[in-house]
Design brief:
Strand content: 5-15%
Strand order of the largest sheet: 2-1-3
Helix content: 55-70%
Largest sheet: 3 strands, antiparallel
Shape: rod-shaped
Number of strands: 5
Radius of gyration: 43 Å
Order of helices and strands: EHHEHHEHEEHH
Amino acid sequence: MASSFKIGERFKERLRDLLESKSAISEELKEELKTFKDQSIIPFKTVRKLHKLLQDNGHPVHLHELFEDSTLHLPEVITPPRNPQLVARLEKIKAKLANEEYKRITRNVNPQEMNQHGTLADFGRQAFACSYLGSQYIFTETTARVIAAVIAASVVGLAELYVLVRTMEGDLGEP
């Protein structure tokens, strides 16, 4: 928060003129203003005293004219270093909240379901039925059709097992 002004050259010139003039300035204020003649920052407290003096004496110089080329002095805010224990605690809380959010989002998701029509367990039966019915175009005997369907269902089952193992190990999907 600003508590002082960075004074410009116009203020310094007017201050010199004010101090050299025979106006009714108290010695205390005169000494205070002399100290700021060489400095570049003046506190608001001194500016208020100067403003009161200008008002009381009916001076032709107004305060806003003095500070035309001046700016507010905003001191640099120094932020204290964060406590490492607090940072670690916040990270744990963030991770816990993220985990709870994930569980909330996925609470109605069943990993065994492939879609609304069946589970992954039904997929093997469907593969068997598909290959059994499809093999009728190749084989005429029922025995050969059953053997072909069992082989196709076994291949699908092995593929499911492979994907399941890779997923459990965490290798699937990683580049």
